[in-house]
Amino acid sequence: MTDDFITNLPKAELHLHIEGSLEPELMFALAERNKVAIPFKSVEDVRAAYSFTNLQTFLDIYYAGAAVLKTEEDFHDLALAYFDRVAQDGVVHAEIFFDPQTHTHRGIPFDVVANGLFAGIDAARAKHGMSIGLIMSYLRHLDEEDAFRTFEQAQPWLDQMIGVGLDSSEMGHPPSKFARVFEASAEAGLLLCAHAGEEGPPAYIHEALDILRVDRIDHGNRALEDPVLVARLAREAMTLTVCPLSNVALRNVDRIEDHPIDRMLDLGLRATIHSDDPAYFGGYIGENYRQTARARNLSRGQIVTLARNSFLGSFLDDEAIAGHLATLEAYVTAHP
Ligand code: HPA
Ligand SMILES: [Zn+2]
Questions:
Q1: 200 lines ligand 1 (CB under 6 A)
Q2: From the UniProt record, which GO molecular function terms apply (predicted)?
Q3: Residue 273 is inside which H or E element, if any?
Q4: Containing domain of residue 274, as a range?
Q5: Catalytic residue list contains 198
Q6: On the chain, which terminus has fewer CB atoms closer than 10 Å, C or N?
Q7: How many structural domains are present in the chain?
Q8: Whose alpha carbon is nearest atom 1 of ligand 1?
Q9: Residues linked to residue 157 through DSSP beta bridges, in sequence order
Q10: Is 133 part of any domain?
């Protein structure tokens, strides 16, 4: 399987935190533009700090890095840089997360964030012909009241958003903590996903399914510890947005050679490959596919299945999904 085949394979990105695409070069440029002090002397200094032992050690640096984002222009530049990058990775559809509370809690109005991101999204749609959706993610280390305040601030924007998510520190913050705000979000017409089973136990995945009633699980790796849960996820064709380089960087998997992505496929799970926070974890979606394919010796069929699953698991309507699947099959036929 050539790297070119994998890179250009049409695919959807479904698990990407836009704040996690902030490259050190842009972090420095924005720190200068906005006169924000950052605790690094050089781009190399920043990269050297990216050595994590678990989710929390990453999140501490990720939230600190986001402090350079201040204006609509910053959010526009951040988003467009991301889409420019993944247009080279065969991404034809993207559903990206943003963390409004990371910004509102440091005094940046919700509308500044949303205006900037949508400007970047509109520019990328026009420039690359990509379809793009925005998912508002609630920070689970904060309380549900704070999530409700965010939901209120988002009201004028809700018809432009496709869904809500749940991210940040997983341990000790089970999905059930957000039952009411997820219910309200669903009633507002938003689709639902939640990080579950990245570090947290299989019980958190059960809660995401039974209490939040999510349409998609982000990560879900620890489902593998619970055969009954695996059988249910397979039966319900529940998409798991798996992020191999993230799993290694955050020490949830020892080495990429040990990654269970092919075991997940063998078990009948609708697993897909994504990038999570590419500026921090060493690679965008194409790099995640290529490194995993190489390390796990994935077959052509498995790689195409992963791309197919990314469209099947998207929040697009059936007609749009069928269109993407036809494009994918045409690509596969044209590259024997
Ligand atoms: O990998 C992640 N896990 C949980 N929350 C996050 N927020 C950004 N990235 C992550
Ligand atoms: Zn994530």
A1: no
A2: adenine deaminase activity; zinc ion binding
A3: strand 270-273
A4: 3-23+72-334
A5: yes
A6: C
A7: 1
A8: 276
A9: none
A10: yes
